[in-house]
Amino acid sequence: MVPIYTVEKPGFINMIKVLDPRYVLPSRKFFSEVTLPQLYNSTRQRVAKELEEVSFYSATTDLWSSRTMQLYMSLTVHFINNYWIRRSVCLQTAYFPEDHTGEIIAQGLKDALNSWNLAEDRLICMTTDSGSNMIKALKDNAWPNLQCFGHRLHNAIENGVKDPWIDRAIGPEEEDAELTKTIKGKVMRYLDPVKDELLDMSSLVDPRFRTTYIDPDKVEPFKKRAVAEIMSLPAPANNSTPLQPGTAVQCVPDQLEQQDDLQYASVHFSNNRADPLYSNMRAARPLRHTEQQEVPE
Predict the structure, then answer these.
(1) Which residues constitute the domain of residue 266?
(2) Where is the signal peptide (predicted)?
(3) Together in a domain, 99 and 194
(4) What are phi and psi of 285, to 5 degrees?
């Protein structure tokens, strides 16, 4: 799908002229005020006629927000037609800016069914997420409710990993969790505004992050800076056997020189969280950046 204003773009107009010079391309206004309304009305009539023949139906609904944070409520019905064909039809995705309380959602769902002449007594079940507002809405309407298995599984996993032992084993630190929220935030937070290069150890530890955001031309300079920083790190404070500064990482420079693209470091650090070297790496975030720092070869 493309936006309606595509018909006004010079490139699209030239393409149509090449395909058929005789064809007169309708205006944007024609598509928005004539073609699309006609298509909607004809489709709605066809779907409404099909729903008239349905004895019973089930439905699913969900509340969601667009990229511009506009709120919508979708309604989809599921039924078996007279030809014993299972059908699922999305009836509407309506703008829903009101507060998402149980009472307002309940009334919104009632209005949606009424607009399609769907009797409530023919509703077998409505599937929703596990939100308390959705559950209350269907309870207020006295409609049978089936909570989505996917949402329940997600909640079970989310609650399961809150166990302290599991969280310690697989859960990232708070700063790591913030790092993964958005790609934009990830890049902007760990980008040097002066030199426009990454300063964070995650680019060394995580190969996916590194290959996505580090220019190949910057790998060698970054490697040298990383090695110098690692060599300057002290042993971790919680280590039962204190190490001399740098002894935990003396093997790193040779390994980095032998293997391209920091492969050794990314695998070693990501798979060995109990290693003193990994602890030192975590303590080094972000890298201490000095404009005039001399990096040993």
Answers:
(1) 173-283
(2) none
(3) no
(4) -90, 130
Strand bridging mode 57-65 / 71-80 = antiparallel
**What is the rounded distance in angstroms from the CA atom of residue 265 to the CA atom of residue 272?**
11
Same-domain status, 46 and 61: no
User: Domain tally for the chain?
Assistant: 3
The last residue of one of the domains, among 50, 65, 84, is 50
Tell me how far apart the alpha carbons of residues 276 and 237 are, in angstroms, rounded to a whole number: 10
Residue 141 near residue 110, CB atoms below 8 Å: yes
pLDDT category at 45 given cuts 50, 70, 90 is very high
Q: Which of 208, 206, 215 is nearest to 281 (CA)?
A: 206
Whether residue 286 has a cis bond before it, omega within 30° of 0? yes
Same domain, 142 and 214: no
The predicted model scores a pTM of: 0.52
User: H or E segment at 258?
Assistant: helix 251-258
- In sequence order, which residues have a C-beta less than 8 Å from that of residue 119 and are 6 or more positions away? 113
- The answer to whether residues 279 and 180 belong to one domain is yes
- CA pair distance 229, 293, nearest whole angstrom: 10
Residue 288, in any domain of the structure: no
CA 212 to chain centre: 17
